[in-house]
Amino acid sequence: MMVELISAPTAARLQRVRDGELDAAFVRGVEDSPELEHLPLWRDALVAALPAGHPLANRQRIALADLAGLPLRIAPREANPHLVDTAVAACRAAGFEPIMGPPFTTDQDTLAAIASGKPSWTLYYAPQAEIQPAPRVVFRPFTDPAPAVQSYLVVRQGPPSRRLAALLDACHRLGDTP
Predict the structure, then answer these.
(1) Comparing C-alpha atoms, which of 47, 93, 65 is closest to residue 85?
(2) What's the Cα-to-Cα distance from 131 to each of 15, 126, 134, 147, 158, rounded to whole Å?
(3) Alpha carbons 13 and 20: distance in angstroms, whole number
(4) Coil, strand, or helix at residue 45?
(5) What is the three-class DSSP state of 74?
């Protein structure tokens, strides 16, 4: 079995699954997707990315509430509604309304701005943070329950093809790995 990964906006990937051009798509969060089934795979915890020179960077873990005074750099809601909604809900649960800073544009530009500009922070998926080169930026997990985003494999409704069944089996085995 060969798996080919396609990079495209979520809506485009979902439409291609709906049209039968793709067998499946990995997505974070659930979209209103008629005719599609969302199969839960894993949850990605979120971590804070902040300037290495900020006092909070000296801690191994930080409380989300400690970030209340810093602007949050995050994608516009229309670009990533699940991440934005998760971030805002987590901030509110921690007792504050996030101060929205300049939008998250690209990894490179946003992390460079965090590293060298006015103090600010952003959220990263923990697995991505583990491999992201980020000079003068630190990634810190949260002391409180970490906000997380659910990932799904989206498929057309109905019995899976043989190829898709093999992919589902591999995803389930991966999900069983601690």
Answers:
(1) 93
(2) 30, 9, 9, 19, 37
(3) 11
(4) strand
(5) coil
DSSP 73: -
Domains identified in the chain and CATH numbers: 10-42+150-176 (3.40.190.10), 44-148 (3.40.190.10)
pTM of the shown model? 0.85
Please calculate the CA angle 14-22-27 and round it to the nearest 5 degrees: 40
Average confidence (pLDDT) over 139-153: 91
- Bigger pLDDT: 154 vs 30: 154
* Token pair belonging to 156: 């057309």
HEC profile for 109-173? HHHHHHHHCCCCEEEEEHHHHHHCCCCCEEEECECCCCCEEEEEEEEECCCCCHHHHHHHHHHHH
Six-digit token pair at 142?
């949260």
Is the separation of the CB atoms in 51 and 140 below 8 Å?
Answer: no
